[in-house]
Specification:
Elements (H helix, E strand, L loop, with lengths): L10 H13 L10 E5 L5 E6 L30 H8 L9 E6 L3 H10 L3 E6 L6 H13 L2 E4 L12
Parallel strand pairs: 3-4, 4-5
Antiparallel strand pairs: 1-2, 1-3
């Protein structure tokens, strides 16, 4: 009998890798955020990345961050977490885990809580002192949603396409 291979990637490496790969689909010139929703038994349920809603052209809506509100991306972009939740067509997300490359904002926290996701694993917290993140943490804590930062293994994974 042969011994199994020992250098395979962990579940966390796998799912965070899928989240980051999903983020690479984003056309946002500043922030490419990806998300991956996983069942309690480690099956991928859905993925998402930040972008405009379906049928809203990436060429017709603004990607800018400065100027009048209607001329910035902020009022139009759907965040990766919400996209992943909305993309799921299989029923309940109760008890699921969400891997995301950036800590969720307050609006995404609402959707995470309402959908039944119980754990959030994030890579970076780019805006830790922002009202949005502070509100997100407050709601996640109140709802009993566990969150923690992904622990980098230091392993480099490359895929040639």
């Amino acid at each position: 009998m042969r011994d199994k291979r020992e250098n395979y990637i962990s579940w966390d490496e796998y799912f965070m890798g899928v989240a980051k790969l999903s983020g690479m689909r984003s056309k946002d010139p500043n922030s490419q955020v990806g998300a991956c929703i996983v069942s309690p038994d480690n099956k991928i349920l859905s993925m998402g990345y930040n972008g405009f809603p379906r049928a809203c052209s990436d060429d017709e809506f603004p990607w800018g961050r400065d100027g009048e509100a209607m001329d910035t991306k902020y009022v139009y972009v759907v965040h990766s977490e919400l996209n992943a939740i909305l993309n799921y067509r299989g029923g309940s997300l109760e008890g699921a885990k969400l891997y995301v490359s950036m800590f969720p904002c307050n609006e995404c926290a609402k959707a995470i809580i309402q959908s039944g996701i119980r754990t959030v694993i994030y890579d970076i917290n780019k805006y830790p002192d922002s009202v949005s993140v502070l509100a997100s943490k407050r709601m996640l804590n109140a709802a009993g949603v566990r969150y923690y930062q992904y622990q980098h293994s230091g392993r480099r994974i490359e895929i040639e396409l």
